[in-house]
Amino acid sequence: MAKKFPIDEFDSAAVHGGRHRARRTAKDRIFEWLRIVIAAALVAGLGYGVLKFVENSNVFDGYLPSSNSSPSASAQSLPEVSVLDGGGAELAAPAGQLLKDAGFNVTGASQLVDADKKPVAIEKTVIVITDELFRADAESIAAKLGSPAVIVSPEFAGPITVVLGADYVLPAE
Fold it and tell me: What is the pTM of this model?
């Protein structure tokens, strides 16, 4: 084999560096832009559709409150009511049952005790609310129990706490 070849047209080609690809025309740039816009529209539309599907489906029925359902009278969101006996007559359970029968959300009935778990005696029956928002419910509870005073205090954790005093008498039905 010969080590030297004759000069031909490939030997006289200009040497240039950089990328070796065809130039992009205006038409190529427009098509590339259109592809990007169409892909973005498809992704956005798909995301919107999935979110609407999840919003209208019952996937989260047990976890999210429903805005389009009307609760029945017994399932309305009434504030929690605790009944504490401070009169020593063990009337917390019957008073709690009276309120529960009247449709209130009674969560507990027990003896009023101090930090050392000793019974506390009080003279007058009161209804303690943590915020003025609960005043209407407390007034209706007061009407059922013989009109005790309603006071606002952060002393108890629940929204409404009925503290039965020594003056409380269970109403006759």
Answer: 0.54
